[in-house]
């Protein structure tokens, strides 16, 4: 776990900063201040959490994600797969933690009466993370922790590389479309469009890799 901490200092620093911002917010804001934490498909807030607990959702989520990924990396079967997993984790974990930090800042700004926080801002953050993750995928080494891990990708290096190159293109195009579209449409449309686009972007590489697997070139 010490090696995991050393290898992912930037991502873990983001978690620490997210926690620090939450702590400052808890000291500055009145107890039981309601903060939005969920929106329905119409773009309306349908769930609130109160301070101080709401301010530690993001750092808690960051610790949970890091713990699960770190545990998965520890049980890698060989030193080679551990090294490959280490490089993959570095590429993916940092933008995820950056998104949580981004959401924490927006949450605090909402609690303090600023207008930065809103559904569209969150959706833009998701689009940016999709863009960053997509650009990380193209050189992602074959590993047993991160990436598009399907039976036919983890057992075929050519399939893995082609699938992740394709995923990079899909994620990048999807993210750019979302960045352009989200500010122009109502929230009710923006949330539906974002969910549909992310779902399509997630499924497309799996279908593509399956088609490669079923052709002689993929074997």
Write up what this structure looks like:
By secondary structure, this protein is mainly alpha-helical. It has a two-stranded antiparallel sheet with strand order 1-2. The longest helix is centred in the middle third of the chain and has 33 residues, at 79-111. A hairpin with a 5-residue loop joins strand 1 (34-39) and strand 2 (45-50). Helix content is 69%, strand content 5%. The chain folds into 2 domains: 1-114, no CATH class; 118-219, no CATH class. Keywords: Membrane, Transmembrane, Transmembrane helix. Residues 15-62 form the DUF1648 domain. The chain crosses the membrane at residues 12-33, 53-75, 96-116, 122-145, 166-185, 191-210. Pfam families: DUF1648, SdpI. This is DUF1648 domain-containing protein.
List the helices and strands and how they pair.
Blueprint: H1 2-7, H2 9-28, E1 34-39, E2 45-50, H3 57-74, H4 79-111, H5 119-137, H6 151-154, H7 157-181, H8 187-213
Antiparallel strand pairs: 1-2
In short:
This protein has 219 residues and is mainly alpha-helical.
% residues in beta strands: 5-15%
Q: Give the low-confidence spans.
A: none
Along the chain, the helix and strand elements come as HHEEHHHHHH
Structural class: mainly alpha
Q: What fraction, in percent, of the residue positions are helical?
A: 55-70%
Report Rg: 19 Å
Strand order of the largest sheet: 1-2
Largest sheet: 2 strands, antiparallel
Number of strands: 2
Termini Cα gap: 36 Å
Structural domains: how many = 2
How many H/I helices? 8
Shape: flat
Summed over residues and divided by their number, the pLDDT gives a mean of 84
Protein name: DUF1648 domain-containing protein
Transmembrane segments: 12-33, 53-75, 96-116, 122-145, 166-185, 191-210
Domain DUF1648: 15-62
InterPro entries: DUF1648, SdpI, SdpI/YhfL
């Amino acid at each position: 776990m010490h090696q995991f901490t050393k290898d992912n200092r930037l991502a873990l620093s983001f978690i620490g900063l997210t926690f620090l911002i939450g702590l400052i917010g808890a000291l500055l804001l009145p107890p039981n201040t309601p903060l939005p934490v969920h929106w329905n498909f119409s773009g309306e807030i349908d769930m609130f959490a109160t301070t101080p607990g709401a301010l530690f959702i993001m750092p808690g989520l960051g610790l949970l994600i890091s713990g699960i990924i770190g545990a998965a990396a520890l049980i890698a079967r060989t030193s080679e797969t551990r090294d490959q997993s280490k490089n993959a984790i570095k590429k993916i974990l940092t933008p995820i933690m950056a998104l949580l930090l981004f959401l924490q800042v927006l949450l605090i700004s909402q609690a303090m009466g600023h207008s930065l926080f809103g559904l569209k801002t969150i959706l833009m953050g998701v689009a940016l993370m999709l863009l960053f993750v997509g650009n990380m995928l193209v050189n992602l080494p074959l590993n047993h922790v991160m990436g598009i891990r399907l039976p036919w990708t983890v057992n075929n290096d050519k399939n893995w590389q082609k699938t992740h190159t394709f995923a990079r293109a899909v994620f990048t195009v999807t993210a750019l479309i979302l960045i352009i579209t989200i500010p122009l449409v109502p929230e009710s449309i923006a949330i539906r469009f974002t969910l549909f686009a992310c779902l399509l972007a997630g499924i497309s590489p799996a279908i593509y890799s399956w088609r490669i697997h079923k052709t002689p070139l993929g074997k």
